Amino acid sequence: MLRTSSRRQRGVSLVELMVGLTVGLIIVAAAASVYITAVRGGADTLRSAKLNMELRRAMDLMVYEIRRAGYTAGTTNLASNPFMLSGANLTLNGTDCLLFSYDINASGAVNTADFFGFRKNGSAISMRYGGTAPSTSAGCSVGSDSWEDITDSTSVVVDTLSFSIAYQCWDAQTSSSSSSQACAPGQSVYDMAAAASTKSDLVEVRDVSINLVGHHISDALTTMSLSQSVKVRNDRVQTVP
Predict the structure, then answer these.
(1) pLDDT of residue 41
(2) Left if phi > 0, otherwise alpha if psi is -120 to 50, otherwise beta: which for 58?
(3) For the purposes of burial, counting CB atoms within 10 Å of the CB of 69, is it exposed (0-12), middle (13-18) or buried (19 or more)?
(4) CA-to-CA distance for 241 and 227, rounded, in angstroms?
(5) In degrees to the nearest 10, what's the CA dihedral of 35, 38, 44, 48?
(6) How far apart are CA 52 and CA 223, in angstroms?
(7) In the chain, N or C: fewer CB atoms in 10 Å?
């Protein structure tokens, strides 16, 4: 006769069960942590990309437009360029508003369509399309001017927008020059030309520096800072005296 022997089977003990549950929870927690980190990393990347796109697009537009300041299609006598005269010339009002004009419709004369500018408007950057003379104090805020935001204030906050203008003045007749002066009364090159017995053509070179800082509206730690210097392509020429 064959005799079969049976072994008694046991389940897991309470200690073994607790150890198994603990190990499982650790694995689940690690997986969840990796997932959350990946999601947060993706969100940070999207915020950074949005901030980069908005600020760089605004900077590129400002650089492109400022280079055109003072352009005219209507005269060969640069000293009589109407876009360089008082009321239409490149002008700073404070540090966060730059105004200028150029001959956008190639008419040769200054009209309301030829005025442009950039300013900080709350948490956004605004661009000006047309309006009053840019050198007036109201040029940065007058309601009749067409100011439009060029950054999305629902996603990006502009913390700082500042402009500065560096001048160089050169006397075409005497070749005297200054690397840090505008061609204006009270400056040495201008005053020497004004005191001379013959007329001189003074050439004023302008460089505009732009400083732009912003952050993402939902994360103050996602920030970006941009700086760029813009050479204005059209030099200002004036005949003195």
Answers:
(1) 59
(2) alpha
(3) buried
(4) 38
(5) -150
(6) 9
(7) N
- Residue 96: phi and psi, rounded to 5, are -115, 15
Contact criterion met (CB below 8 Å) for 155 and 54: yes
Predicted local confidence at residue 238, as pLDDT: 92
What is the distance of C-alpha 45 from the center of its chain? 21
Q: Residue length, the chain?
A: 241
CA distance 85 to 223: 39
Residue 157 token pair:
């906050």
For the chain, helix, strand, coil in percent to 5 are 30, 30, 40
- What average pLDDT values come out for the chain (241 residues) when binned by 10 residues? 55 73 82 71 81 96 97 84 90 92 92 92 92 65 80 96 97 91 94 92 97 95 96 94 87
Exposure letters 111-127 (e unless 16+ CB within 10 A, then b): eeebbbbbbbbebbbbb
